[in-house]
């Protein structure tokens, strides 16, 4: 029993040493992008970066509409994973992508549109467009799951689809915005990882 306890103490010391080394390395490598605040000010966006969760929310209001954009942190593919994915894909795989949702609500009557979107290499892609006469219903997942998600946009009128792209552009959901969230979601994941290292380390005083 004493021999096993001694091994446990030795293993614990090695774990603490490894964690300390990893924490030092990660914090020495990380640098927060100061351009984040410049971007938010330029696009007049307010950010809610929820601590200890993957969730990120961007908000903006005008006299007539409220804009809310939700996205999550994303762990980037490793170089090894990228090579494997490249070998089985017909397209070049990249870390420059991000799924996000856009809620545009008309203040007058609370009706609006929900856009399920993704960005890929800073290019906006709309996957579906949902209408609701009460956008607050999206706060209840059980209810919003039954909403009609709109027509298949690949088979829909290109002119109308282009209108919706331009509609999002008017609210600032453009190429620079896509580039921003593609970068920020990875940065958020890295910060969560560093926080995780510190919290795990705190278990071993």
Any overview of this molecule?
This protein has 205 residues and is α+β, with helices and mostly antiparallel strands. It has helices at residues 2-29, 35-42, 79-88, 141-144, 158-170, 175-202, and strands at 46-49, 55-61, 65-72, 97-106, 112-120, 123-132. The protein folds into two domains: 1-30; 34-202, Mitochondrial glycoprotein (Mitochondrial Matrix Protein, Chain A), CATH 3.10.280.10. It has six helices and six strands. The protein has a six-stranded antiparallel sheet with strand order 1-2-3-4-5-6. Strand 4 (97-106) and strand 5 (112-120) form a beta hairpin. Helix 1 (2-29) runs antiparallel to helix 6. The two termini are 23 Å apart.
């Amino acid at each position: 029993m004493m021999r096993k306890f001694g091994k446990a103490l030795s293993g614990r010391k090695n774990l603490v040493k490894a964690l300390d080394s990893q924490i030092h390395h990660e914090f020495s490598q990380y640098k927060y992008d100061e351009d984040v605040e410049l971007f938010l000010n330029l696009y007049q966006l307010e950010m809610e970066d929820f601590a200890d969760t993957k969730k990120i929310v961007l908000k903006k209001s005008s006299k007539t509409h409220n804009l809310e954009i939700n996205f999550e942190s994303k762990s980037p593919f490793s170089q090894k994973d990228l090579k494997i994915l490249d070998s089985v894909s017909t397209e070049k795989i990249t870390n420059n992508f991000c799924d996000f949702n856009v809620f545009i609500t008309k203040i007058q009557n609370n009706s609006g549109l929900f856009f399920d979107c993704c960005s890929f290499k800073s290019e906006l892609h709309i996957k579906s467009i949902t209408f609701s006469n009460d956008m607050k219903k999206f706060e209840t997942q059980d209810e919003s799951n039954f909403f009609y998600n709109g027509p298949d946009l690949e088979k829909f009128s290109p002119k109308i689809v282009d209108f919706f792209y331009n509609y999002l552009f008017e609210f600032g959901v453009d190429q620079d915005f896509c580039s921003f969230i593609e970068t920020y979601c990875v940065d958020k994941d890295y910060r969560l990882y560093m926080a995780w290292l510190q919290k795990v380390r705190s278990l071993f005083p």
